[in-house]
Amino acid sequence: MSGHSKWSTIKHKKGAADARRGKLFTQLAKEISIAAREGGGDPDFNNRLRLAIAKAKADNMPNDNIERAIKRGTGELEGGELVEFMYEAYAPHGVGMLIEVVTDNRNRAVADVRHVFNKFGGNLAENGAVSWQFSRKGYITITEEVDEDELFLIAADAGADDIYFDDEVTEIYTEIENFQAVQKALEDAGFTIDEARMVYEPNNTVELEPDQTLQVMGVIEKVEDLDDVQNVYSALEISDEAIEAMEAA
User: Fold this and answer.
1) Residues 157-171: pLDDT tens digits?
2) How many domains does the chain have?
3) Domain coverage including residue 54
4) For residue 42, what is the domain's CATH number?
5) Cβ-proximal residues to 115 (8 Å cutoff; 6+ apart), any chain
6) pTM for this structure?
7) Whole-number Å distance between alpha carbons of 232 and 223
8) What is the C-alpha separation between 193 and 183, in angstroms, rounded?
9) Of 176, 118, 188, which is closest to residue 151 (Cα–Cα)?
């Protein structure tokens, strides 16, 4: 079993709050544009784009926004070119973080990320200082109610490494080479995939005292809220005590 921090599950549960802040549509549009740029604007021949559009529609993103994002990616609309890159950082108490950014202004993006760390603790790190603590994995989520035994057997037989069942989301992790096979097996079996992408999973996690955990989570959330930040990965292990403290706050 890899180090599962419950962080992605918590992020899933707070998705509605993110939408209210206007961040969700920005993320979805960027993902659609990047997918269209890399694989073309036809979702029938671009799996990443197909999944991005499906997620956007599930989150009630207007069709006009989706079409504009596709056209931006294929170059049919003018606009600053989106670039993807990664920052490595340390949150307070030495917790490693990887920050995926998609932006049309790299200088603005790094200034915004640095400002969060300067204000709330932590610091940016040199390339390679943190990334060795993580492994690239395939990541699939399903939010519909499932037969856990059936899903487990299908996913495991197709090559899934780790499967986590929660009340609201099922998470599946795979090695890179098994990612598409697991995704196809689940779809062929009739499961509706909510999200399928590559992520960075920590090789080992760090468990802190509840108050320290909340401090680190606060910094992670501030970074996540930045317009140019697409995903944040951390080595933070979130204990049940920390979750209780968060819910009581």
Assistant:
1) 999 999 999 888 899
2) 1
3) 7-74
4) 1.10.10.200
5) none
6) 0.80
7) 8
8) 8
9) 188
